[in-house]
Specification:
With 60 residues, the protein is α+β, with helices and mostly antiparallel strands. It has one helix and three strands. It has a three-stranded antiparallel β-sheet with strand order 1-2-3, with helices on one face.
Amino acid sequence: MTGRTGEIYRIGWLPGTDILHGTCHCGREHTAQDPVEMWEWMLAHPQGHEPRHEPRGNSS
């Protein structure tokens, strides 16, 4: 089967809102109101999916 990657994308609505919450196959999460924006974000992987770096104290 060509074109199958096994990647799983999840999109759901946050209860009581018009906000979509998406999870990319890489584990990154994103929220948006526009379904087109959400799919563009997911399909642009890895653009916009850079890991968030937590500030760390000086280890010296």
